[in-house]
Amino acid sequence: MFEAKFQVFVDRTDKAASKARLAALRREMVAQALDGFLVPRADEHQGEYVPACDERLAWLTGFTGSAGFAIVFAKSAFIFSDGRYTLQVKAQVDAKLFEYVPSHEVPVGQWLGDHAPEGARIGYDPRLHTAGDIDRLTATLARRKAQLVAVETNPIDAVWQDRPAPPSGKIVLQPAAFSGETVDEKVHRVQASLAAEGADALIVSDPHNVAWLLNIRGSDVSHTPIALCYALVLARGSTTLFIEAAKVPDAVRHELPAQVEIAEPDELAVAVRQISSGGRTVRLDAGTAGAFLRTMVERSGGKADIGVDPITLMKARKNGTEITGARAAHLRDGAAMARFLCWLDGAAVSEALTEIDAAAALEGFRIETGKLKDIAFPTIAGMGPNGAMPHYRVSETSNRALGPGFFLVDSGAQYQDGTTDITRVIAIGKPSAEMKDRYTRVLKGMIAVSRARFPKGTSGAQLDTLARQFLWEKGLDFGHGTGHGVGSYLSVHEGPQRIAKTGHAALEPGMIVSNEPGFYKPGRYGIRIENLIIVQSAADGAYEFETLTLVPIDTRAIAKPLLNKVERAWLNAYHARVLREVGPLVDAPVRAWLAQACAPI
Questions:
Q1: DSSP-based three-state secondary structure for 520
Q2: Nearest one of 515, 512, 505 to 445, comparing CA atoms
Q3: Are the C-beta atoms of residues 466 and 535 closer than 8 Å to each other?
Q4: Pairing state of beta strands 281-285 and 303-307?
Q5: Distance between CA atoms of 549 and 571, rounded to whole angstroms?
């Protein structure tokens, strides 16, 4: 049996501790003359994955999802999350202490405008909210004659007695053989963009963008190879990386270009004051720059230009080296997935497997490639009703045995040449007619996106309907986006591109996105079929997608009469390609299984 190296299955939340922690927070709020306090699930870089020392929301409430928010008043407290986490919030958070508010129905700002106490002083940590967040909340609170108060000391930090130490992992280089572009070339591109837009400097607040710009990787958060740090790029001048010196080995220091200076994090304030003086314009990224940075720039006499970090789009458009790496990573990952699915088909019933057994085994097959750096996120391995929770994370307390029904496995890998993300549903036993109908409608939506052709300027929002149309025919839908951007040995969730109702960025060649429609029947089963696809230019000037993922799609759950000739031809061609490219990489027993799994329908 396999053992997981990169993930644990212990439920570390402690619902029982919330009562004492909430009481301690309220005492500190009184000491700071606050009537309320905002607790986002964020660090000062607004990242999806945060280090243990910044898991304030989880510490206070017990909720461990990647998107959430709490508001604490003297006599009441509320927790917000979107539709992905409704069941998880209710399971992890004490409803006697925190009232649940679905943020996808009632956004935090709107709720505060309706419920904040009249004249209240509501505290916030200016490092954990963007300037735009604060402007919007300030405006909505004006209706209640309430005010936001920036705190110097986060009251949770003041009472969190055993708060973990900040991460201290060392950074490593991402060689040009994988990045495809030197640091000098990237810096010059960024400087040219700043000059064209009339900015004197850029504070790079997103560690993913720092990693891309300087061709470095780190280990400060789970499953995403970044170091928590800042960079300052002058439109005419040097670039400075603000990071603890102990995180920078001599070998990395010597390889970075001479124009890249290294300074301690506490020197950022001095550098910002210097560059801001005299009315200079400093670009801040609207999505990741903490409100404290705007205050710092403006108090130093500068103009805070809040907009888009130009690195974000540069990073999203993968170059030829990165595209080649992505193809190699997905081929390697496809072979590991084939070994896993072959093993699972033989063992799911005969060996009394559990969700944890399957998640650990999949990680083990990826480790056997000899190239795995980490998993891309904790594996979602949901049997039956657990699969109906889109962001389910198996633990020792939730672990279910595999048995008749749908088993959903959503997983990914971090290889130095690329990041993967794939979801497959395995039919164990004989699915019902309803299950096959829903599975096939999800598959039809996935195929429709895969086959899409579209003109330059088309956004993901314009393609999102393609994935939902067949579910809509039955009055059904799914509550998450159809797809998200994916990095190159960086975050498995990368912007600005996405296929979703809110995906308004134009899709451009080189952008990698996921294609993952789904359907979820609470308490019964979940369905999601996911491939990664990359935007490319067609010969006639239109844009289309190349599918990167090379893994069989379970045909045993397909209601074949629902597939038309075009869809059937796409699926058969896809499976023929999987067999042709992955088959030579696996041994004979797996190749025989793969031939059967990829047989035309």
A1: strand
A2: 515
A3: no
A4: parallel
A5: 13
Tell me which residue has tokens 């280090």: 51
- CA separation, residue 84 to residues 33, 65, 81, 236, 503 (Å): 35, 9, 8, 45, 18
And the tokens for 357?
A: 């057994």
pLDDT at 10: 86
Mean pLDDT across 588-598: 98
Rounded-to-integer distance, Cα 190 and Cα 196, Å: 10
For residue 378, CA distances in Å to 89, 341, 348, 409 come to: 18, 18, 21, 11
Length of the chain measured in residues: 601
CB 284 within 8 A of CB 203: yes
Q: Considering only CA atoms, which of 356, 480, 487 is closest in space to residue 413?
A: 487
Helix (H) or strand (E) holding 596: helix 588-597
Residue with tokens 């679905």: 102
Q: Which fold has domain 320-597?
A: Creatine Amidinohydrolase (3.90.230)
Amino acid at position 162, single letter = D
In tens, the pLDDT along 91-143 reads 899 999 999 999 989 999 999 999 999 999 999 999 999 999 999 999 999 99
Lowest-confidence pick of 269-278, 346-355, 541-550? 346-355
Residues 389-410: tens digit of each pLDDT: 988 999 999 999 999 999 999 9
Alpha-carbon radius of gyration of the chain: 25
Model-wide pTM > 0.90:
yes
Q: Is the pLDDT of residue 269 over 80?
A: yes
Could you give phi then psi for residue 26, rounded to 5 degrees?
A: -65, -35
Residue 281's closest CA among 193, 194, 189?
194
Q: What is the CATH number of domain 15-159?
A: 3.40.350.10
Q: Can you tell me whether residue 38 is helix, strand or coil?
A: strand
Query: 34, 123 in Cβ contact below 8 A?
Result: yes
Common-topology check for domains 172-314 and 320-597: no
Q: In whole numbers, what is the pLDDT of the chain averaged over residues?
A: 96
- 229 token code pair: 């740090």
Tell how far CA 52 is from the center of its chain. Answer: 17
Whether the CB-CB separation of 554 and 425 falls below 8 Å is answered with: yes
> Nearest Cα to 91, choosing from 62, 51, 52?
62
Task: Provide the pLDDT for residue 1.
Answer: 66
Q: What is the pLDDT of residues 539-565, one digit of tens each?
A: 999 999 999 999 999 999 999 999 999
Distance CA 443, CA 437 (A): 10
Provide the residue ranges of all domains of the chain, joining segments of one domain with +: 15-159, 172-314, 320-597
pLDDT at residue 347 above 90? no
pLDDT tens-digit profile of 228-267? 999 999 999 999 999 999 999 999 999 999 999 999 999 9
Of 3.40.30.10, 3.40.1190.10, 3.40.350.10, 3.30.390.30, the CATH number of 172-314 is 3.40.350.10
**Is 421 within 8 Å of 412 (Cβ atoms)?**
yes
pLDDT score of 564: 98
In 462-584, DSSP assigns E strands to 483-485, 494-499, 512-515, 518-521, 525-528, 531-537, 543-547
- Tell me how crowded residue 580 is: count the other CB atoms within 10 A of its CB: 11
Q: Please say if the pLDDT value at position 349 is more than 70.
A: no
